[in-house]
Structures are given as C-alpha cells and as structure tokens.
Design goal:
The complex is a heterodimer of chains A (107) and B (268).
Chain A: H1 5-9, E1 14-21, E2 24-28, H2 39-50, E3 59-63, E4 67-74, E5 77-84, H3 89-106
Antiparallel strand pairs in A: 1-2, 1-5, 3-4, 4-5
Chain B: E1 2-8, H1 14-23, E2 28-34, E3 37-44, E4 47-53, E5 56-57, H2 59-66, E6 72-77, H3 90-110, E7 118-120, H4 133-139, H5 148-154, H6 159-171, E8 175-177, H7 180-188, H8 196-209, H9 213-224, H10 233-245, H11 250-267
Antiparallel strand pairs in B: 1-6, 2-3, 2-6, 3-4, 4-5, 7-8
Helix pairs in contact in B: 1-3, 2-3, 5-6, 8-11, 10-11
The chains are: A alpha+beta (107), B alpha+beta (268).
C-alpha cells in the first residue's frame, strides 16, 4: 500500500498534519500556524475522541473560516490533517484513510 | 401529537405491539409502514376501534398489516379517529392474526417477495383444474413481465391477498417463476463509457466486488450527478470516495482506494 505522509503533503492545500497515538503526539505544521503550539489542546482532543463510546466515526471534518481540519481515527491512533479550503477534500479523505491504515498496520 | 414508542417490525412483530398496547390500555394511533405501503390502527383504552390500510378499512385492514414481516411502527398517544370500523375483541384479532402469520410464513417459503414475476406454465399435469373467479382475474394478468405487486395493484387486490392467489396457482402447477437470470442479465448489462478513467475504475472495482461493479459505478454516478466522461478531478475523487464507502470488505475497500488513488494522482 503506497499511501504515505508524503502523498498527503503533496495534495494542494494541505498545510500539515498531527499524529497521536497513546501518549505520543507528533505535530508537523508550519511554525506560524495557530495549531503548531497547541500540543496540550490537541492531546485533549485526541483523548476525547479516542475514548470508548465517544468516537464519532472514522472521519471527522471541522470546517473553520479558512482552514479545514480532517481527523481520521483507527483503533488508538488519530491522524489530523490541516488544510486550506482549496484542497480536494475527497482526495484528501481517500489518502488520509490510506495513510492511517498504513500507520496502524506498521504498529 | 406525542410520539411514545417506535421501532422496527423485524424485531417486534405487529401482534406483539398490539398485545403491549392492549395490556397497557393505551389510546392513540399506531402507524405501520412496510415498503411503499402504510396504515393506521387506532386504539381506545387498549381496544382496537379503527384501522385503515390504503383503501381497506376495519378488521380486514388490521389483518393486512399484522402479517408484515418488516418495516417500521410508531405510536402516537391520544390521537383518536372520528369513526369506528372495528368491533371485535383483541383476543379474536390476535387468534386470527396467528393463523394468518402461519399462513403467510407458508406462502413466503415458496414466494418470498411480491416482486417476483410469474409466467403461465404450459405443462399442466392435472386433467381438470377448477378456477375461482379471483384466480382467473389474476391469471388474465400474468404475462411474464408484471410482478405480483404490479398485478395486485392493477386488479385492486392487496399484496397479501395476491400472494395467496399466486401461492394457490403455483401449488396447482398453473404458473412458474420467470427465470431470474433473464431479467437479472438485462439489469446487469450496464453500458459504461470507455475512457481510461472509467476502465481503470471498473477494473479496480471488479477486483473488490466482482461483476456488479459497472452497475455500482453507474448507480453512484447517477446518485451524485457526476458525468463519467468529465475530466473534473474533484468530481472523480468524490465519485471514488463514495464508491469506496460501498465496498463491504474493509481490506478490499482499502486496496481499491490504494490502486485508484495512485492512478488518479499519476493522471493529475
């Protein structure tokens, strides 16, 4: 399966991503981005979403004024993709699912 | 209107709901639906006082609805009718209901759906077969293309009554089911435009779900209003995403997504 982070970042409009699993969180966003330094808030969001019974679904999209946050969930791993409104969302969702499936598979 | 209970008829059959409402001495309207059909049963202090199912009213309407094997029900408290069309006890209704459900189960074992199409069987084994007028009316409409439901509608019968007639005719050896493969093949022979994208999409989807793939592609494109000949990348990606969500096997779905996304990116 080829879905890699690189594929995700190659999609026009994708600004960066966050991967959270267990106690670890990896944030790859431009330093100027509002979420780049929001480690604690993102960890809280991850814990809240991954908690049993609170899982809203495999994919969650949060649309803000000029940013779209797409969250993919699988077992205890969360992949969050931050993109602008110009991104092809269907392509982003497809690639995101593949990337997360790869991350989970590698574990 | 205050909706109190609702649910699925597959899990709770109609007689059970009637029993519950009767024991609870409830007053209100029970709305039942089964496919395109729907009807109401009105309760007054736990007693059925009125029922309506399409054009049928009274006890007959109750018996029509109680055999529905699936569908939905909703009960609205204190919704009462202006007329009374049912005047027999719940016990009598439930006893008759049980008979009808048994009868319907027997029919369903031979004729599982009202969508089945029959044709007259030329190989009659009996020398003489007496035919009732209602059976003749049905026979006159059997043409190898109309389903039981369509024939029932054309001669003003309920689907349940029509299925009973078809069951008898089938038992008498007067009719036989139309070979499904013919109508099935006709439905499956979907023409897809021949473009690199559509061909790749079809080939990848066939690997995931088999020969039904062209049908799913056309159906999904129609649902989404996507032109399969269009070069629009957004539309293609959205179409793939929706088709991917229809693949039941998760691994197959991911494999499909993987190959087609790869192709899409190469072409982009």
């Amino acid at each position: 399966m080829k879905g890699t982070i690189k594929d995700l970042l190659n999609i026009t409009g994708v600004q960066g991503y966050v991967i959270a699993s267990g106690r670890n969180i990896q944030i790859k966003l431009p330093s100027r981005h509002g979420l780049a330094n929001a480690k604690d808030r993102l960890m809280d969001l991850y814990k809240d979403l991954i908690e049993e019974g609170k899982k809203a679904g495999n994919t969650i999209e949060i649309c803000m004024e000029d940013t779209i946050i797409t969250i993919f969930l699988s077992s205890s791993t969360m992949l969050m993709v931050v993109s602008s409104c110009i991104a092809n969302m269907a392509l982003l969702r497809m690639t995101g699912k593949l990337v997360l499936a790869n991350i989970v598979k590698e574990k | 209107m205050n909706q109190e209970i609702s649910g699925d008829l597959e899990n709770t059959r109609c007689p059970e709901i009637i029993k519950i409402l009767s024991l609870g001495k409830r007053t209100g309207r029970l709305i039942l639906s089964y496919g395109a059909e729907s009807g109401d049963i009105y309760f007054q202090d736990g007693k059925i006082i009125h029922a309506k199912c399409g054009l049928i009213e009274g006890t007959k309407a109750v018996y029509e609805m109680v055999v529905w094997p699936s569908g939905e029900y909703r009960f609205f408290v204190d919704d009462t009718p202006d007329i009374t069309t049912v005047d027999i006890s719940i016990e009598e209704i439930l006893a008759e209901t049980e008979n009808r459900i048994r009868q319907m189960d027997r029919i369903s074992s031979l004729i599982p759906s009202a969508n089945i199409v029959f044709v007259l069987d030329p190989d009659i084994k009996e020398k003489e077969i007496p035919i009732k007028s209602i059976q003749w009316r049905v026979i006159a409409k059997i043409n190898g293309t109309s389903s039981i439901a369509e024939i029932a509608q054309s001669i003003g019968l309920t689907e349940t009554d029509a299925m009973k007639v078809f069951y008898t005719l089938l038992k008498l050896g007067l009719i036989k089911e139309v070979e499904r493969s013919d109508s099935h093949k006709a439905k499956m022979s979907v023409k897809l435009p021949v473009t690199p994208f559509v061909t790749e999409l079809k080939n990848d989807l066939v690997k995931a779900i088999g020969p039904i793939a062209p049908h799913i592609i056309v159906e999904t494109a129609q649902e989404m209003g996507v032109d399969l000949l269009s070069d629009n990348m957004d539309q293609r990606a959205a179409l793939i995403e929706t088709i991917h969500s229809k693949i039941p096997d998760e691994r197959m779905a991911l494999d499909f997504l993987n190959t087609i996304t790869d192709w899409l990116k190469q072409g982009a």
